[in-house]
Design a protein that fits this description.
Order of helices and strands of chain B: HEEHEEEHEEHEHHHHHEHEHEEH
Structural class of chain A: mainly alpha
Distance between the termini of chain B: 65 Å
Order of helices and strands of chain A: HHHHHHHHH
Distance between the termini of chain A: 52 Å
Strand content of chain B: 15-25%
Helix content of chain B: 25-40%
Oligomer: heterodimer
Largest interface: A-B, 18 and 27 residues
Largest sheet of chain B: 6 strands, mixed
Shape of chain B: globular
Number of helices of chain B: 12
Number of strands of chain A: 0
Shape of chain A: elongated
Largest sheet of chain A: none
Chain lengths: 210, 294
């Protein structure tokens, strides 16, 4: 069976899986951003916590993704078979790039700018919201962009624990030894990643301060 | 209160009939100020260092400045001169409480810096630093309007003030107000830095080598303009530099620092003929131009 014919015959199924895949990624990214950005802000002035948080996030990222999904299954509340477990794993994977970039972006601001801000009588929260975050946002977004692309790829493996998405085709294709079925999962996943990269890259350039 | 009785106030003359008061005890300042007011005839100096020592982490071994005794009068342009590491920037930062003395007190506008609310203290003190420290994501107008925006001025008043200040520092508002700092030359950025410091009309201006990073021609230009500006503004200015030429041009009084201590205190007129070795080291740095006959 040619890949093209398979695509045409299963187009609604493929579109549905793509939508599931995207939902998985968007939910995981929302959680990852909500955790990693505030944590990144917190560790700027706390060296001990910084080391701990960055090491922990790095460790999550070194665990092979299939193994991480497997580890999570027996854990109560967050584990089990299905989408929730997959989202937990994806969040853990996405933390590091966002956390690291938030920290680097906030810590890398010209000290003269921060000294001036403090000396002009800005409060710490004014410095954070009006100076640090606006100056760091392009770097933070670069981290979010990297994390999104990683998450789109890793989410294909989530099908192994019954989370659905484009990985379903890939695993089915491997089992059937059918290139066409594998491509039905792989091509949309690749296109999603490229689209996310382009869109977030565009936003990132808009946020850059020349 | 027993604080009043424990405050021992000493008078001494510093050689030019300037009366200095200092307080040895670290008792409550209210009582000190009250006792001072009864003694002083002219108004309190705007800034006073009362036996100030600052050391990193409060350890005795790492003293940056030691036992500083200094009064800055209202309207004076005081230049803190010294080599790198002599403690001049530290003294400056003690004034707006970017640093807090390890021992002794810094009194600004009749209140010890530790008793001021740091934010309120700093809003009343303009601050200009070497790299200007302009906010790169703000336009020139937004940078100048920083303190007015923190103080919630209305838009009309802010715009009027920004235009007034840009005109004052020689940057045409129509041409420059909406530019970003990266679209300016080094000299223009430094001018904006001065305008930003002046925005809310603070009575005190602190300047930390503001012209240090500029090319020599631009630097001389800004020094001349600033000298004229300072005379018109009648602000109390504390100016840090390592350039004797700049000190002689701008100062109404020069304090020379060496290893965290005051080693000379003189007018620009008196300064070059003083006999302290560090003064001579500085005057020797003013070598004539190569090829120019003495």
């Amino acid at each position: 069976m040619s890949a093209w014919r398979f695509f045409v015959e299963h187009r609604s199924e493929i579109l549905g899986a793509t939508a599931d895949h995207l939902t998985l990624v968007v939910i995981a990214m929302a959680f990852a951003i909500a955790i990693a950005v505030p944590l990144g802000m917190l560790i700027v002035h706390r060296p001990t916590l910084r080391k701990f948080a960055l090491v922990l996030a790095s460790i999550f990222q070194t665990i092979p993704s299939l193994a991480l999904f497997g580890f999570l299954i027996p854990i109560p509340f967050i584990g089990g078979i299905g989408r929730r477990t997959a989202i937990v794993a994806l969040v853990l994977y996405a933390l590091l790039p966002i956390l690291r970039n938030t920290y680097v972006g906030l810590a890398g601001i010209d000290p003269a700018v921060l000294e001036a801000a403090e000396a002009m009588g800005m409060t710490n929260s004014q410095i954070l919201w009006r100076v640090r975050l606006p100056l760091a946002r392009a770097v933070i977004l670069a981290g979010i962009r990297t994390a999104t692309i990683i998450t789109i790829g890793v989410a294909t493996i989530a099908a192994a624990i019954g989370a659905g998405g484009l990985g379903t085709f890939i695993f089915r294709g491997v089992a059937m030894v059918s290139d066409a079925v594998i491509l039905a999962g792989a091509i949309p996943a690749a296109l999603l990643a490229i689209a996310a990269d382009l869109v977030l890259g565009w936003v990132e350039r808009r946020l850059k301060i020349a | 209160m027993d604080a009043a009785s424990s405050a021992s106030i000493h008078e001494k003359f510093d050689g030019r009939d300037r009366v200095n008061y200092y307080v040895r005890s670290r008792s409550r300042r209210v009582s000190i100020l009250m006792s001072q007011k009864t003694v002083l005839e002219k108004p309190d100096p705007t800034i006073q260092f009362q036996n100030v020592t600052y050391s990193i982490n409060g350890t005795v071994r790492h003293k940056i400045v030691s036992e500083i005794q200094l009064s800055v009068d209202s309207g004076q342009t005081l230049v803190l001169l010294g080599r790198s590491g002599s403690g001049k920037t530290t003294l400056l930062k003690l004034i707006n409480r970017l640093l807090v003395p390890t021992t002794g007190r810094v009194v600004v506008r009749e209140r010890s810096t530790t008793e001021w609310d740091a934010i309120q203290l700093r809003r009343g003190i303009g601050y200009v630093i070497q790299d200007a420290g302009l906010f790169p994501h703000f336009t020139v107008a937004q940078n100048v309007a920083l303190v007015p925006s923190l103080e919630n001025w209305d838009a009309a008043r802010t715009t009027a003030r920004v235009n007034e200040l840009l005109a004052l520092i020689g940057l045409e508002p129509a041409q420059f107000a909406s530019r970003k700092p990266h679209e300016l030359s080094g000299g223009q950025r430094q001018r904006v830095g001065v305008a930003r410091a002046l925005a809310a009309d603070p009575p005190i201006l602190l300047m930390d080598e503001p012209f240090g990073a500029l090319d020599p021609v631009t630097r001389a230009e800004l020094q001349r303009e600033f000298s004229a500006l300072a005379k018109r503004l009648s602000k109390t200015i504390v100016f840090v530099t390592h350039d004797l030429r700049e000190a002689l041009l701008l100062a109404s009084r020069i304090i020379l620092l060496e290893k965290g201590r005051v080693v000379a205190d003189a007018t620009p007129h008196e300064f070059p003929s003083m006999n302290h070795p560090e003064v001579r080291a500085f005057t020797a740095s003013l070598t004539p131009l190569p090829g120019v006959q003495a």
